[in-house]
Structures are given as structure tokens and as C-alpha cells.
Write a structure and sequence with these properties.
By secondary structure, this protein is an alpha+beta fold. 34% of the residues lie in helices and 21% in strands. The protein has two domains: 3-12 and 19-136 and 236-255, no CATH class; 149-233, no CATH class. The protein has nine helices and twelve strands. The strands form five sheets. The chain has a three-stranded antiparallel sheet. Strands 7-8-9 form a three-stranded antiparallel sheet.
Length: 269
């Protein structure tokens, strides 16, 4: 996908009292899974270009300590205030984060230190964020306006209905896991918490308590297959890139590391 597809200059008439430059970006979901009356159903979102005011958000010790700096930044940059950050599908939010970074500091990200999976040698690489592409939703496969999917589990043959997670869902999962960690330092519910938040019904059973019990007892083969299926259909930004190891010559593909340099390019200074 070309750079022009991911970032597009807004050509709409200037809004009254709007004195700041903006960009319109395409969302990987194309807006398909949002309600028809949602501003996100257009499949695009308009962003204000970052200023020194927004950089203050990124350097706020209080927001950084609470882990809220990025969210507050995005909320400040989204032009349409009817759009709530928590309503964004996670893949769409990821795309917005990368777009904001590109608009603020350009496409160059690095140099980054990357270990080679083959020989473990440390490589220096610079990523061109403009080359990242979207894994888009297939408009022909899904009903517009519905965040609802169906999948038959391979082992139990149970029919599962599920939804894609939003930013609000992700935060709820994080709260649940944090609460569990206070009770037990060794217990983990990362997989089941996500499935419970995504699954709406199993074989027609919609009672939340019963669905949670069924998830806890889901065969591992079914759990793995369902998670793989969800990854395949989830619209997102493909945040991976290719690099060649300087030592062994192996050609590898790695995920873009979200280091402190991502939104703080001069962090090493």
C-alpha cells in the first residue's frame, strides 16, 4: 500500500474557526464494523498536526507515570470530538498511533538495535514507517455496521460468536489482569481474559457467567485455532519490516520495536 493511501491531505473546506493544519488518514477497518451513526463508520479519521502543546503532553511526568501520555495525545489530536478513543478497534488505534508519529516526526525511525534470531548478533537498523501497510478488512466478507463474527471450533465443533476488541475492552482486560496479579503473583489470565471479553455466545448460550465457564474449559486446540482465526480477520497495521543480518546474512522479518525513540526521537540526547 502506498504512502498516499495511509496518509491523505484533507481536501475538505476549512471548518469555521479551525486554524490548524490537519491530515485525514484511512483506517484498516474501513469503518465496516462501526455502527452506521458512528463518525468512525466513514473509515477515516482527521488528525490535527502535533504542536509544542502536544509535546508537553508527551513529557508530562504525571501522565507518563500513569501510562496515559499516548492516549491523552491522541485525544488532543483527533479533530472530531464526537469520536471517543475507547470506541476505536485496536487495529485502528494502532494505525492512528503510527500516523501521528509519522506526521509529527517523519518516516525515519531509528537507528534501532535488533538481535538476529539466527546468530543473535546485534544489528543496527532504521525503519521507514512510510513503507508499512494496512491489513484491511474485506468488505465483501462482513456485514457493515456489525462487530460480530462466527466461527466453528475445530475440536468441539461448538459455534462461537465473537467481536473484535476496542480500546475500552483492552483497558478492561488490563484492569482485570492487574487485579488478579494483586491476588496471586503467579496466576495469569491473559488468554482467557481476552477470549471472555471477545466471545458473545457459544452454541447460542449468551449468559455471561456460562460463557466464561465454557471459555475456562475450552480445549487448547480450540483456543489456539480461534485466536489464530481472530488474528487473520482483524484489520490492523502490519508493523513488521525486513532486515538482513550484518553478521550471518540471514534475511529476517521483525516487528517494529516500540522503544522510547518512537515518540521521543531525541531521547538519547
Amino acid at each position: 500500500m502506498s504512502d498516499e493511501i495511509i496518509l491523505q491531505r484533507s481536501t475538505s473546506a476549512p471548518k469555521q474557526q479551525q486554524t490548524f493544519p490537519t491530515e485525514v488518514i484511512d483506517l484498516p477497518s474501513k469503518g465496516i464494523f462501526y455502527p452506521e451513526n458512528s463518525p468512525l463508520s466513514s473509515g477515516r479519521i482527521e488528525l490535527k498536526l502535533m504542536t509544542a502543546k502536544e509535546e508537553d503532553i508527551l513529557t508530562s511526568p504525571n501522565l507518563l507515570k500513569k501510562g496515559l501520555a499516548i492516549d491523552k495525545l491522541l485525544e488532543s489530536l483527533i479533530v472530531n470530538k464526537d469520536i471517543k478513543l475507547g470506541d476505536l478497534l485496536l487495529g485502528d488505534k494502532n494505525a492512528v498511533i503510527f500516523a501521528v508519529r509519522r506526521l509529527a516526526y517523519g518516516d525515519k525511525y531509528g537507528p534501532l538495535e535488533l538481535p538476529c534470531p539466527k546468530c543473535q548478533a546485534k544489528n543496527q537498523a532504521t525503519v521507514d514507517l512510510g513503507q508499512l501497510t494496512h491489513k484491511e478488512a474485506d468488505e465483501t466478507q462482513f456485514k457493515p455496521g456489525e462487530n460480530l463474527f462466527e466461527y466453528t471450533l475445530p475440536a468441539s465443533k461448538a459455534v462461537v460468536q465473537f467481536k473484535l476488541l476496542t480500546d475500552n475492552d483492552e483497558k478492561a482486560i488490563e484492569r482485570d489482569n492487574a487485579a488478579l496479579s494483586k491476588i496471586s503473583k503467579t496466576a495469569s489470565s491473559e488468554i482467557t481474559s481476552r477470549l471472555k471479553k471477545m466471545i458473545i455466545s457459544i452454541n447460542g448460550e449468551t449468559d455471561p457467567a456460562k460463557v466464561k465457564a465454557l471459555v475456562d474449559n475450552m480445549p487448547s486446540r480450540d483456543s489456539l485455532a480461534l485466536r489464530q482465526h481472530i488474528r487473520e480477520i482483524t484489520p490492523d497495521i502490519d508493523a513488521t519490516f525486513e532486515f538482513t543480518c550484518s553478521e550471518c546474512g540471514a534475511e529476517e522479518r521483525a516487528a517494529v520495536p516500540m522503544t522510547v525513540q518512537f515518540f521521543w526521537p531525541d531521547a538519547r540526547v
